[in-house]
Amino acid sequence: MGTLPYIAPEVLRGQKGDHLSDLWALGVLLYELAAGNLPFRGKTGFEVTSAILREPTPPLPTSVPPGLASVIQRCLSKERLERYQRASEVRVALEAVQGAVLQSRRPSDEARGPRMLVLRGMEHLKVKNADVLLLVGTNKGAFILRSSHDRAKWDVAGPYFHGQGIYSMAYDGRNGRNRLWVSANNMVWGTFLRSSDDFGRTWTNPVESNIRFPAESGASLKNIWQISMGRNDEPEKLYCGVEPAAIFESNDEGETWSLIRGLYDHAHRPRWMPSNGGLVLHTIVPDPSNKERIYTAISAGGVYRTDDGGKTWCARNTGVRVMFLPEKYPEFGQCVHKIVLHESKPERLFLQNHGWLYCSDNRGDSWQDISRGVPSDFGFAMLMHPHDPDCVYIIPVESEEFRCTPEGHLRVYRTRNAGGSWEALSRGLPQKGAYETVLRDALSTDSLDPAGIYFGTRSGKLYGSRDEGKSWKKIAEGLPQILCVKTAVVQMNGAPAQKPSSKPNPAKKQKAARAKSISRRK
Amino acid sequence: MQVIFNIPGPLREFTGNQRSVRVAVGDGANLLQALDALFQEFPGLHDRVLTETGEARRHVNLFVSNENVRFTGGLATPVPPGAEISIVPAISGG
Lengths: 522, 94
Hints:
The complex is a heterodimer.
Chain A: H1 9-12, H2 19-35, H3 45-54, H4 66-75, H5 87-96, H6 109-112, E1 115-117, E2 132-138, E3 141-147, E4 155-160, E5 165-172, E6 179-186, E7 190-196, E8 202-204, E9 223-229, E10 238-243, E11 246-250, E12 258-259, H7 261-264, E13 280-286, E14 294-299, E15 302-306, E16 314-315, E17 336-341, E18 349-353, E19 357-360, E20 368-369, E21 379-384, E22 392-396, E23 412-415, E24 423-425, E25 443-445, E26 453-456, E27 462-465, E28 473-476, E29 482-489, H8 506-515
Antiparallel strand pairs in A: 1-8, 2-3, 2-29, 3-4, 5-6, 6-7, 9-10, 10-11, 11-12, 13-14, 14-15, 15-16, 17-18, 18-19, 19-20, 21-22, 22-23, 23-24, 25-26, 26-27, 27-28
Chain B: E1 2-6, E2 20-24, H1 31-41, H2 46-49, E3 60-64, E4 67-68, E5 84-89
Parallel strand pairs in B: 1-5
Antiparallel strand pairs in B: 1-2, 3-4, 3-5
């Protein structure tokens, strides 16, 4: 049988239930989700039964998109043969209304375009203050994971933006906001910047492209590779790094965007060479100590720095080698994969190059090789420790051709002396037959103490460590190819995220960590 | 004259969920003019069908009647009165 309000009329009449009775139950469930109450109600079982058998389905609220309403009505046909005949038909019908428009709730929504109800991944996250979020972009959609502050167990929601390539995600918690940003690349319909203020329940869907090249530039947007927040004391500011290589900036929380012309019109542009992924600007690092200074990295153009808020940009690649040009140390043209800095030491930068690792102590004016002690100096991802300016994480991959972890060992490498030496972190990571690749934005940290470190692989596995990399656990697997992993520690109503209480005995803590398995909610 | 646009599922949130919409265009209009009239009425379609440089997106196919306009003059393809114009995502994926 089942729960009374969900039972189909023919079953109540004593017939045997079948898949069409299940589609009725699905209709009841969808009705409940859309309307907030059951379609057939009563104080007693008799009244409920009578409503199911005889009452027409009550109309849905006008806020429910008409396409969705008609799907629900059809599932709730009293006559079995008037329902959809297969679950796959319902799925197709729901896909067609996935983009159903919800009524605008605020006038400012007009400018942002409709907000969309996401029907897929219906189980959204229930997020509380101080929760930790992992934003995981894959080549087939976005996933959001949530854990409480202990980072022991993760709920998963998604995929959002079903089938789309999610190259960048970001969390903006400045100024009391709780906004998620996503760059969603639809192979057919283009790339759009989308945001959600309710942790993924609804997303903006701009009427017009929010990031667009001016007509006279002759360029058209191929992809958005990076969404970067501005400095904390400029809470209205955001940046996007795009393909073809350019930076767009917003000074109104992401409402409107404009091209930074100084870089777009740079004299070097005609000689930048597209790398395997295209001519991509993938890294934007505002200097936390200087409002006029921003670093960026282009593949393959190299590192550029502005000291005047974006008006002019100078190449900053002295000492950085290239393997694909006859000149080994050109002024620009390097294929830089990532640069990072620590806010307490903003004059020092670390760089993962297309071959070789570097450090600069003078704002990128010159670079020193720090590749000694790694199994391969090739890699994509590089991560700054949130609290220790001498600590950097990388995940080396073998050689230009192979681009997988060396010898099938999945290992994160860490330096704690600014590149003087490197140590392998492998406890809990597979050390046999693990030919993995971690892409440039798929390594991330939360801001907690001890720091949580997370990374995702091209094979769809997500790993996490909550002891700064000492030990690792698989958080999820079977995801599509992971393109980016970002983190957030949620602060609601401006409440400060609670720091974990004073450091407990580390051994004891690790034991507790092992005892609590990281599990994925169904 | 009027022409009819067939709207694919993923774009219907920008047409109030309508599968096909009728728009009025001047006699002798070509496809680009017909699209302009469509975009006037449903602005959300513009950037999803065309790029910033005004070309049809690479994986968007446009058909006037049953003919893919790639073979009939692209956006300059003439549109006869009452023509059915279909916006169809190309076979693609990976």
